[in-house]
Design a protein that fits this description.
Blueprint lengths: L1 H17 L17 H20 L4 H4 L10 H19 L14 H20 L11 E5 L2 E5 L1 H26 L7 E2 L4 E2 L2
Antiparallel strand pairs: 1-2, 3-4
Helix pairs in contact: 2-5, 2-6, 4-5, 4-6
């Protein structure tokens, strides 16, 4: 536990300077045509924007904040969203989702990986056709076993679950006295002037 806090502390020292390099400080321009892949990509872009600002400016004290003793901490929720983003990316890449041992990652590494996973997934979708989506199943591989679900389950599963958890982080931040930037405008996908 103490080592984890030390790693979070060290990673937070550089996060503000480095966060400008990360995707989703704003939502990318909207596509010009409505297609299934463009809508799915835009959903992921919206998630990326919400996650970016839910996690921007977190501090060490926030990582252990939780609503109740049974609930996840902010730090645990951030790791869970990273796992969900991995599942999103693997599904649109037409690869099975497998359990991954990430070892010890700093907060900045987790945040960076999550945002880049989401950006890469949205990019893959924008370069795909609607017909490609029929092969973008959610596939869970556990040992020799495999469970397969259609793309629909990715929407109401990993994508919406991650949006849900980004909202939990926002609420927990408010409780801990470190609310998100009040200029965040999720409707416009940018900061208000």
């Amino acid at each position: 536990m103490r080592n984890a806090l030390l790693l979070f502390t060290l990673s937070l020292v550089t996060i503000n300077a480095m966060s400008q390099e990360l995707p989703y400080a704003t939502i990318p321009d909207a596509p010009t045509e409505f297609t299934a892949v463009n809508v799915a990509a835009r959903m992921i872009d919206g998630l990326g924007f919400r996650y970016y600002w839910a996690t921007e400016g977190l501090n060490v004290e926030n990582m252990e904040t939780q609503g109740t003793d049974e609930a996840r901490t902010i730090g645990e929720t951030i790791r869970h969203i990273r796992d969900l983003s991995n599942g999103i990316l693997r599904s649109v890449s037409k690869e099975p989702t497998v359990s991954v041992d990430y070892g010890t990652q700093t907060f900045y590494e987790i945040r960076t990986q999550t945002l880049k996973n989401l950006d890469q997934a949205a990019t893959i979708l924008r370069k795909s056709t609607d017909a490609d989506m029929k092969d973008m199943d959610v596939v869970f591989k556990r040992g020799e076993g495999e469970s397969r679900f259609p793309f629909w389950n990715l929407i109401n599963g990993q994508i919406e679950d991650a949006v849900w958890h980004a909202g939990q982080i926002v609420t927990l931040r408010r409780i801990s006295g470190n609310p998100i930037n009040p200029k965040v405008n999720v409707f416009m996908g940018k900061l208000n002037d």
